[in-house]
Amino acid sequence: MSWEWRGEYYPISRAEYEQIKLDVENEQARKMHDAPAQYEQGRQQQQGQQQQSGGGGAFGAFGKRPDGTRSQFENNLEATRDLIRKRVKLYSQKTYKKVRLTKVRIYYLPKEFYIYIV
Question: Where are the alpha helices (DSSP H) in 5-113?
Fold first, then answer.
């Protein structure tokens, strides 16, 4: 009895992914540095919401700092993920001339395991 596994993945290495991620975070930090008034306004709104909700325990809610604020990257996590995904796709397309790689592995089970499958 055999079964096959099919996986699709980006051809970049872990180091390349970490570099792209770092670049995106640095760009976002530069944007926050350029617009500190908007950042402070968002931070004050978050603190006001936390005071209304009660804080979430002795050390704050999960994912928050002890003072109740979030980091600038946690506030916009979904947009950051989408931007990293776009950059990884573009990087692999330019560097490797492929967006994704597909790998198929075939696994065979020994006959003694057939009893447990049925």
Answer: 14-34, 36-53, 77-96
Tell whether pTM > 0.70.
no
pLDDT 10s digits, 89-105: 999 999 999 888 999 99
Q: How far is CA 12 from CA 5, 79, 105, in A?
A: 21, 21, 20
Mean pLDDT of the chain: 75
Burial class of residue 20 in the structure, from the number of CB atoms within 10 Å of its CB (0-12 exposed, 13-18 middle, 19+ buried): buried
What φ, ψ does residue 111 adopt, rounded to 5°? Answer: -60, -30
CA angle 82–37–67, rounded 5-degree value: 75
Cα(10)–Cα(87) distance, integer angstroms: 11
Length of the chain: 118
For the chain, the structural domain boundaries read 2-117
